[in-house]
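Subject: Sanity check before I submit

Could someone independently write out the structure tokens for this chain? I want to compare against mine line by line before I put it in a report. The sequence has 198 residues.
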Amino acid sequence: KPGYMGDSEGLAVADDGTIWFSFEGFDRVASYATPDANAGLQRRPPRLPGMGVNSGIEALAIRDDGTLFAVPERSGAEGRAFPVLTYRDQQWGRAGEIRRDPRWLPVGADFGPDGWYYLLERDFLGVLGFASRVRRMQMTDDGPRDEEILLETGYMQYDNLEGLSVWHDGQGIRLTMISDDNFLFVQRTELVEYRLRD
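---
Independent answer below. Compare away.
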């Protein structure tokens, strides 16, 4: 099917420079030693409730120890938490679940320089556009804890924010987000940045 093989969603860069992507449609992760390298073959993730052609592994982040954390865009039901998949040494595992608020769907993630796991979420209300939210939590091998909401935008404040990078600029932590215009003239590509304050 068109787009079935190439719908990349998540991006994570390891300390050694390896570039990881998650794909939905044909759900998988792929690694690239350099931007010009061929994809490294990886084991397919387990099939989870709610995963479909446009709702697969959406948020991808890598911890300092090289473990990938992957979260699907949908959980299968509004009252069901999002499973957290882990991938290391060609093996898939689980690291608990992330609480779901019905209207919010995960679209991006990153581990910050402070060790916290940051999750970008999106809500869509048709003609009212998109709203975005950022949560952070301590991600353990048994699941998240100490969750807090850092940011919640209004509808139409930004476009379809789907990518998140959390980094330190020498003065403090920044949250840099990018929108996906879906190749539609009614949408736009935006870079949105916030500084995190105590």
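---
OP: Matches mine. For the report I'm noting this point. The longest strand covers residues 130-140.
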